[in-house]
Write a structure and sequence with these properties.
339 residues, single chain, 8 helices, Rossmann fold
């Protein structure tokens, strides 16, 4: 395994930020740490990078132990074989694009010819081959992000670490850059940890997702697994838009019995794109359109069903205030423990 983390514990004073977190990442695998602010995902990443020192645990990178609390091992960040892209990019304004990317090689005292070759290759890989002599102050946000990626990969690290690298980009550029990062990561075939609070990033980029909450891993699996079979309502909500209806023994408060996957008390979870306006299916609920938003390729509705408001995505146009029937299949309704 390229990254091994075992029983990691990090505290700030009396507060435990990371509580016995363990996972492994294979060479070439991209794993996202997904969760809300304060869940411990960035602190976990910084512990791997050596920017934070855990109280307990074990970390190895590319087979080399870089932290072991039991043996007193704590390798400095600059001796860990990592490439890291920060949320702020951390581009030096007084340097050219070439000099920014060359910096990791210069501090490693690489020969000039090697620096020229590696920087040229890295800039070509991120589409900035013609920008090498440009001042970093003349770059757009997207171009600065690419410089940061080129600087992270130029010394061929064993692992890549991304700390919410797209959060400062606009929506269209974020989608484009997301695809470029995934393509580049596959080409490099290195173990990668990607921290994000954006469910779309995690779902589209990842080989696996680790959903974090309260300093622990709530669930881990492929994007399809954590989206399609969440372990509880927290994971369901974090990994995609979800509607929740309170149920007792699979029955709604008004006595309606739901046909669903799972049973017991908690909440029935239905994704907005699995609710259909009109028609009949395993489950049919009557409601009233409270709000309609036009989103280009489809409409987004808020539908009042009893005391609950359900979000529905549909290509069908219905007037606000209209009475409707929402239908959905039993396979698309999952009963989960409420959290």
């Amino acid at each position: 395994m390229s990254i091994v983390v075992r029983d990691l514990v990090k505290r700030y004073g009396e507060k435990t930020i990371i509580d016995r977190v363990s996972f492994e990442i294979a060479e070439g695998e991209l794993v996202s740490l997904l969760g809300p602010s304060g869940c411990g995902k960035t602190t976990t990443l910084r512990c791997i990078a050596g920017l934070e020192t855990p109280e307990e645990g074990f970390i190895s990178i590319g087979g080399e132990v870089v932290f072991d609390s039991a043996k007193g091992i704590a390798v400095e960040p600059y001796h860990r074989d990592i490439g890291m892209v920060f949320q702020s990019y951390a581009i030096w304004p007084h340097m050219t694009v070439f000099e920014n990317v060359a910096f990791p090689l210069r501090i490693r005292r690489r020969p000039a010819a090697d620096i020229q070759q590696r920087v040229t290759r890295a800039l070509e890989m991120v589409g900035l081959g013609d920008f090498r002599d440009r001042s970093s102050q003349q770059l757009s946000g997207g171009q600065q992000q690419r410089v940061a990626v080129a600087r992270a990969i130029v010394h061929a690290p064993a692992v890549l670490l991304f700390d919410e690298p797209l959060s400062n980009l606009d929506a269209k550029l974020r989608d484009q850059t997301r695809a470029e990062i995934r393509k580049l990561q596959r080409e490099l075939n290195v173990a990668t940890v990607y921290v994000t609070h954006d469910q779309a990033e995690a779902l589209s980029l990842s080989d696996r997702i680790l959903v974090m909450h309260g300093g622990t891993i709530r669930q881990q699996g492929t994007p399809a697994e954590v989206y399609g079979t969440p372990v509880d309502s927290f994971v369901a909500d974090v990994v995609g838009a979800a509607n929740f209806l309170p149920v007792t023994g699979g029955t709604l408060p008004d006595g309606t019995v739901l046909r669903a996957t799972g049973s017991g008390d908690g909440v029935a979870m239905i994704r907005p794109d699995r609710l259909f306006i009109g028609g009949t299916s395993d489950n049919n609920l009557n409601g009233t359109i409270r709000q309609r938003l036009y989103l280009g390729g489809h409409y987004e509705y808020l539908v009042a069903v009893g005391p609950s408001l359900l979000r529905v995505l549909s290509s069908v146009m219905v007037a606000e205030g209209a009475a409707v029937t929402l239908s959905f299949a039993a396979a698309d309704c999952i009963i989960l423990p409420a959290t």
